[in-house]
Amino acid sequence: MAAARMRVGIISAGRVGTALGEALAAVGHDVASLTARSPESRGRAALRLPQARILDPSGVVADSQLLILAVPDTALPTVVDAVAAAGPRPGTIVAHTAGALGVAVLEPLARLGAVTIAVHPAMTFVGSSDDTARLASSCFGITSDDEIGDAIAAALVLEMGGTPVRIAESDRTLYHAALAHGANNLIALITDAVTALDAAIAGPHGEHSATATVDGPDPGIARRVLAPLVRASLDNVLEMGGAALTGPVARDDAATVRRHLAALAALPDHQLVDGYRALSARAASQSGAGRELRDLLEAHA
User: Fold this and answer.
1) CA distance 49 to 44
2) The CATH number of domain 7-167, selected from 2.60.40.2000, 3.90.170.10, 3.40.50.720, 3.40.30.10
3) At 139, is the secondary structure helix, strand, or coil?
4) Does an H or E element contain 297, and which?
5) 103 contacts 149 by C-beta, under 8 angstroms
6) Which residues pair with 53 in a beta bridge?
7) Cα 121 to Cα 115, 135, 227, distances in angstroms
8) In the chain, count of helices (H) and strands (E)?
9) 39-93: per-residue pLDDT in tens?
């Protein structure tokens, strides 16, 4: 069913909805209409989906064979009620992109005869056309009520160049938690690392004397120092798992970790040391570190 060229409607033209619309249009689907309330969404739609008409939700529902609900998890139930009130035609395929929810949230539409699926791209979106290109290398968590829905969801993902991964309805929250832990919490981790490294490079008087160039201090040096190390570590753990761990925790070096904790605790942001301690304690547990190191890391947990 999904292999046929379909008339697609998108609610709404945010980062995710626009990227999916571009990807579907690129393989021949007719992305005919969408909702776009904010100036940013309207500008994004005009630039990247110029063929699509901007309509109200009821107009998009009436115009669509495939309806994509690309709204945040918290907004999805309200949007589903609005779509149900608009009366989608029986047989309309309705897909939502919320990570933590399966197809139960679409039950009001299933009762009206819609084919309901959850299609969540495991990717971060920044709002540019790069998002669309990344979809081709992404996995998508798909959930449906039956084999027909599974086949449609998988076909749509494969058309866009992605890889479908089936997630049970009961496991959608766990699936989403894993992605948030690996991707969103990584942002917090690297932000803290940049903060600490900036302070170290600035020196005790807050001057970037060690990194001065002919044009003056280099404010981006901390990111440049970290970038190759972080990328190599990510590649290593994805290939080797926990065996990729290096550094003082891997060496069971409690003395060095104690000095790390003291240095981080002296920074203005006193919560930074808490993040280091929590992640180091987890790494120590995974690597089988000795009691002295584990006690040190768990002392203020």
Assistant:
1) 8
2) 3.40.50.720
3) strand
4) helix 291-298
5) yes
6) 33
7) 19, 7, 25
8) 13, 8
9) 999 999 999 999 999 999 999 999 999 999 999 999 999 999 999 999 999 999 9
